[in-house]
Amino acid sequence: MDFQDKLQSLLGETVEVVTGIQVTTGVLIRVTDSTATVLTSGASGYGNAQNVVFQLDRITYVRLV
């Protein structure tokens, strides 16, 4: 199982994605052959959730939260 396959097995889970410059927590909603997309939650009541797209080769690690 490669990294992409492992990430696809985590679709719908809340994860923490760590890169060399940021840490992002949210629900893993999409994985392609080159990217992973996480839906982050906004501040309660503000509705500013956003999709954050990561290049797979830039991800240091991913963990379940």
What does this structure look like?
With 65 residues, the chain is mainly β. It has one helix and five strands. It has one helix at residues 3-8; strands spanning 14-19, 23-31, 35-40, 50-55, 59-64. It has a five-stranded antiparallel beta sheet. A hairpin with a 3-residue loop joins strand 1 and strand 2 (23-31). It starts with a helix and ends with a strand.
Q: Main traits of this protein?
A:
65 residues; mainly beta; SH3 type barrels; 5-stranded antiparallel β-sheet; 5 strands; 9% helix; globular; DUF2642 domain-containing protein
CATH architecture: Roll
- Compute the number of strand runs: 5
Mean pLDDT: 93
- Outline type: globular
Q: Spans with pLDDT under 50 lasting ≥5 residues?
A: none
What is the C-level CATH assignment? Answer: Mainly Beta
The whole-angstrom Rg is: 11 Å
The number of distinct structural domains comes to: 1
Oligomer: single chain
Secondary structural class? mainly beta
Our count of helices gives 1
Taken in chain order, the helices and strands follow as HEEEEE
CATH names the topology as SH3 type barrels
- Which percent bin holds the helix content? under 10%
Beta-strand percentage? over 45%
In the sheet with the most strands, the strands line up as 4-3-2-1-5
Termini Cα gap:
21 Å
